[in-house]
Amino acid sequence: YWNGGIFISRTSVLLGEMERELTQISALADEGDVTYETLRTKVTLNKRFGRLREAAEVAKQGTMIKDNTSANPWFDSAVLFLFAGEEEKYRQHCQEFANWVEATSTALKQDKLIKSCLLLPDTIPLSILPIEPLRETAKSEGAYRTFFRGCCALYSYREGDYGDARRWVSMAGPGRDEANTLVALVSAMTEFQLGESTKARDLLERASASIPPELRDLGSPQFDDKLPLDAKTIDVNWLIAELLRREAAALILDSE
After folding, report:
1. Global pTM value
2. Is pLDDT above 90 for 133?
3. 16, 84, 93, 214: least buried by Cβ within 10 Å?
């Protein structure tokens, strides 16, 4: 719109509003008035601006809040460190996350830990991850069954047990779009490893079409042209799907 003869885009106005909100949240944090919900708002705003390294570091602060019992800051940090190109920090963070999660933790915490540590191969020894209790929970028909079964499929894929990965994929069933996409991407990589390259390409194509296209350039210089992003677009589960899409594309398409 026009302001005193100067054209101001809607994007510029929105960015200004987000900057002011970010400043207010930072002030609260500086005063010690910190909960992870406060920090998570700051994480989200940084992600919407494309400030991935800053978002990762803020999420990491959440893991240090006294008496924190939420796996969310750990989960967010792991994914964001990878997108920010901080692979060494990611690997160290995963080890700390594994030490934090107790054997008796809920299935949701187990899922977030395992999924975080499987975003790259050989991040930490698979044997220290609580996969057996998650597998037991994943057999039930709970609300998160597709997420849990997708996580179990990814674990088997990282183990190199492609037959078991295919079995978990076949059990996954329909769920939220993000969960369905994760399962499809694991299935694509699994089928490729089992010699089904045509099926793998088809699965990858369909899964890729489900991921918000703005994420394709996340972490690259071209990404700046797409700011600010919608909050739903940069949901952590979509970020995980995009990381796996890139791995699957490199595996399947680069082999052609």
Report:
1. 0.86
2. yes
3. 16
